[in-house]
Amino acid sequence: MRKSVLLIMMLFTVSMAANAQKFALIDTEYIMKNIPAAQSANEQMQEATKKYQSEVEALAKEAQKMFQDYQAKSSTLSAAQKTKTEDAIVAKEKEAAELKRNYFGPEGELAKMRDKLITPIQDDIYEAVKAISQQHGYDMVIDRASATGIIFANPRIDISDEILRKLGYSN
């Protein structure tokens, strides 16, 4: 009886080992920080963000000033002048909102810039991860930067430096 239990346990252990999956870990933030083109792209996007934000804020401030002037003068304005001024304020606010959407929306200038500058780098990283995963037989590669549930990972399964070498960047 004891031998059969041991035999079953050994078979179970062997079958579990045969089904074990190989995992690897990457850190895309680390990889991106070590790729000069990615750093340059991030700097360009930050500069564009500041520029676009200042333009949107200028329009919003202009609308706010128009509203404050309207409030100060509203008692002296005729009904037609009030309506005209209110329409101008609403138009300026809409203009600011439209500009914000054109710059920061899902199909705005920043999204287009990101697609042009960052997406090709991310595609290269993906292809390198895919090639290394197939070469080493990894069943799954987890990104430390986006997997908030990782509390600890053994550094030996981190293949970030290998990805950088595959892309032609040494660390």
TrEMBL record:
GO biological processes: protein stabilization
Pfam families associated with the record: OmpH
Keywords tagged on the record: Coiled coil, Signal
GO molecular function terms noted in the UniProt entry: unfolded protein binding
Cleaved signal peptide residues: 1-20
Coiled coil location: 38-102
Top-level taxon of origin: Bacteria
A GO CC annotation given for this chain: cytosol
Family: Belongs to the Skp family.
UniProt-recorded name of the protein: Periplasmic chaperone for outer membrane proteins Skp
